[in-house]
């Protein structure tokens, strides 16, 4: 959970900030009133290219982390090494560079 939150905070910070502000402002009804913002976080994390790459490139360390959590429900601290390995993998994922329209079709020299 911590690893996913760190990745989300890094790449979907605007959505996370808006959701946090809504929850803080509506302590009695945040689950209902802030649901659309929660969905915007989910949409960001599923659509963000770098998060997609991380999911693909780091699926094995993440699966190991999830399995550790299942086996250590009462002592999640036992999974710190799994979190570290996943985050280390995620840090090494580089965004794939897609050329912009200008790079793909340079203007002719005058």
From TrEMBL:
Domain CHCH: start-end pairs: 58-91
Record's keyword terms, sorted: Disulfide bond
GO process terms (BP): cellular respiration
Entry keyword Disulfide bond: yes
Domain IMS import disulfide relay-system CHCH-CHCH-like Cx9C: 5-49
Pfam family name, one: CHCH
Cellular component, GO annotation: mitochondrial intermembrane space
Keyword Disulfide bond among UniProt keywords: yes
Family annotation (PANTHER family): COILED-COIL-HELIX-COILED-COIL-HELIX DOMAIN-CONTAINING PROTEIN 5
Protein name: Coiled-coil-helix-coiled-coil-helix domain containing 5
Source organism (scientific name): Moschus moschiferus (Siberian musk deer)
